[in-house]
């Protein structure tokens, strides 16, 4: 995919701020600190477009980015950060459920899991929502530069078993591994939408 333009549109803290102009949208979901913003920046070849940080739980809003004036990336807040309050955790669930069930523009959900760990309870819960939602989704196993090929193969197979039905793509924001594969999934989701 050739990136001709990529711009930050807005941060939405509640539903009334979800931007919408009918363009197809791709959502990035996953545990806090798993590498959502890094994946988005790597795809767009823009280092600081989505803010990354070492402080988990930083992104509390849905951040929207317009790409090539053709489709939208939605960087959702991370879940599962231990230090946030219970209220904030249940707020995350409500927000995500509402977003996933109501967002008509959503053409592809990308669930990120850390390639170094078994999926957590919350990862599996989100996987279940995504499966029931019956919209296209893929799993991206992040930070794969931190594993040997052998470890990665084992990990991908464990993730595939824990999350049946999803195609799992190994990705590294550091090396760019998996970037083209993720793009081809996005490309096909966007062009299917355009044909409707
Ligand atoms: N080695 C390595 N580090 C990564 C990779 N992706 C992300 N990181 C690091 O992991 C940390 C978190 O990355 P972010 O992209 O900010 O994670 P996030 O999921 O957007 O986090 P929140 O917005 O807090 O939910 C940062 O320090 C990144 O540099 C990767 O592929 N390889
Ligand atoms: Mg982020």
Euclidean distance between termini CA atoms = 21 Å
Biggest beta-sheet profile: 7 strands, mixed
Q: What fraction strand?
A: 15-25%
SSE-based structural type: alpha/beta
Q: H/E element string?
A: EEHEEHEHEHEH
Nearest-integer average pLDDT = 90
Question: If helices are DSSP runs of H or I spanning 4 or more residues, what is the number of helices?
Answer: 5
Helix content: 25-40%
Q: Can you list the ligands bound to this structure?
A: guanosine-5'-triphosphate, magnesium ion
Shape: globular
Report the count of strand segments.
7
| Order of adjacent strands in the largest pleated sheet | 1-3-4-2-5-6-7
Unreliable parts: none
Radius of gyration: 16 Å
Give short descriptive properties of this protein.
single chain; 196 residues; alpha/beta; seven-stranded mixed β-sheet; 5 helices; 7 strands; globular; binds guanosine-5'-triphosphate; binds magnesium ion
Structural features, described:
The two termini are 21 Å apart. 36% of the residues lie in helices and 21% in strands. The chain has a 7-stranded mixed β-sheet, sandwiched between helices. Helix 3 (121-133) links the parallel strand 5 (106-114) and strand 6. It is built from 5 helices and 7 strands; from the N terminus they run ββαββαβαβαβα. With 196 residues, the protein is an alpha/beta fold. The protein binds guanosine-5'-triphosphate (GTP) and magnesium ion (MG). Magnesium ion binds at residues 36-37, 59, 75.
């Amino acid at each position: 995919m050739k990136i001709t333009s990529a711009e930050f549109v807005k941060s939405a803290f509640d539903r009334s701020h979800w931007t919408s102009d009918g363009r197809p949208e791709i959502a990035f979901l996953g545990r806090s600190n798993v590498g959502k913003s890094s994946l988005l920046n790597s795809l767009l070849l823009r280092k600081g477009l989505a803010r990354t940080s070492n402080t988990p739980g930083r992104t509390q809003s849905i951040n929207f980015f317009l790409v090539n004036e053709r489709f939208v990336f939605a960087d959702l807040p991370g879940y599962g950060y231990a230090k946030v309050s219970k209220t904030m955790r249940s707020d995350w669930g409500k927000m995500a459920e509402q977003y996933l069930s109501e967002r008509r523009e959503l053409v592809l959900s990308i669930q990120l899991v850390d390639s170094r760990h078994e999926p957590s309870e919350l990862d599996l819960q989100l996987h279940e929502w995504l499966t029931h939602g019956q919209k296209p989704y893929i799993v991206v196993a992040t930070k794969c530069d931190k594993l040997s090929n052998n470890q990665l193969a084992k990990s991908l197979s464990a993730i595939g078993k824990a999350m049946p039905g999803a195609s799992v793509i190994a990705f590294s924001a550091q090396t760019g591994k998996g970037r083209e594969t993720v793009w081809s999934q996005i490309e096909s989701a966007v062009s299917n939408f355009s044909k409707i």
